[in-house]
Design a protein that fits this description.
single chain, six-stranded parallel sheet, 12% strand, two-stranded parallel sheet
Length: 303
């Protein structure tokens, strides 16, 4: 079984004392492709400051991928090679626009360096409104230009942090398949960070995938009491509504502030714990699709 996790925030914590790979943030029972996100919030900082931080993360990512001997995936040939050889691999994503503009040299440079997945915002910025904020203006003019430019470059846009209006604006502005790298379902847990039925349906109709998120507030209305199996109603919902070719993993490891459902610890692989739970409930063929095949099918189509 080849495992794909579409969203991991460990890059933000990587430094001279802690490497990109830890004892808990990747699978150890199976080969994997892990998408590492360069997390760039707005928080009132200038575009120049955010671009500097983004490029710092990219350089750390490239250094660590080389040091660890991971396959850096930026085209479909490398993807097939990694999966055929069952080798561990990594991809780069950007979470939060990074102060980039559609015609910026940095966007082109990042694409050349391997950027293939990007979200326009984490908190609201000059590109789009975020689900974190009350005001919902949707995509800005620059956000629409960015969507068009990303389509031209072949950068897949991640809707996970978009506000509702931003999501639908993006659907109008971006003609390619969309991805929600780390989002759950609002019908199961009514958090505005989660996808509505219509949003999830739109992603599915476009041939996209949705990565399950472990953050307790996105799993249940009672996050303080959440156990690991709170992810299962989200799995059941997606399988019932959209079939078994949409769901993937986007566990948001190291993006939850260290807060995980009860039963999930950082003493050993979180992925292995989740996979054991899924295998105890669903047929192996379904778990194989959730664990990696759906994401691989998607990536083979967009890379």
């Amino acid at each position: 079984m080849y495992i794909v996790d579409l969203h991991n925030d460990s890059l933000s914590l990587t430094n001279s004392e802690r490497g990109l790979i830890t004892e808990y943030n990747v699978p150890y029972a199976n080969p994997f492709l892990q998408v590492f996100a360069a997390y760039i919030p707005f928080r009132g900082r200038s575009p120049e400051a955010r671009r500097r931080e983004l490029m710092k993360y990219v350089n750390v990512y490239l250094y660590e991928v080389d040091r660890l001997g991971l396959s850096h995936i930026d085209d479909v040939r490398k993807l097939y090679s990694a999966t055929d050889n069952l080798s561990n691999a990594a991809m780069l994503s950007v979470e939060g626009g990074g102060g980039l503009l559609a015609d910026s040299e940095e966007l082109f440079t990042l694409h050349k360096m391997g950027l293939r997945i990007m979200s326009l915002c984490w908190d609201s910025n000059e590109l789009a409104s975020s689900s974190r904020d009350e005001a919902d203006e949707g995509l800005t003019h620059e956000g629409r230009r960015m969507a068009k430019r990303c389509a031209e470059l072949g950068i897949t846009l991640d809707v996970s942090h978009l506000s509702d209006r931003s999501f639908w604006h993006l659907c109008d502005a971006y003609p390619l398949p969309l991805i929600a790298t780390h989002s759950n379902f609002r019908d199961v847990c009514p958090h505005k960070r989660n996808l509505t039925y219509d949003m999830a349906k739109e992603i599915a109709m476009r041939g996209g995938v949705i990565g399950l998120n472990l953050y307790p507030e996105f799993l249940s209305e009672s996050p303080e009491d959440v156990k690991a199996d709170a992810i299962l109603p989200h799995v059941d919902y997606c399988l019932e509504k959209f079939g078994d070719n949409v769901l993937s993993l986007g566990l948001d490891i190291d993006g939850t502030g260290g807060v995980y459902p009860r039963g999930i610890t950082t003493d050993s692989s979180i992925h292995d714990r989740i996979l054991d739970m899924l295998l105890s409930r669903y047929p192996t063929s379904v778990v194989e699709r959730i664990a990696g095949e759906n994401a691989l099918d998607f990536l083979r189509g967009v890379l």
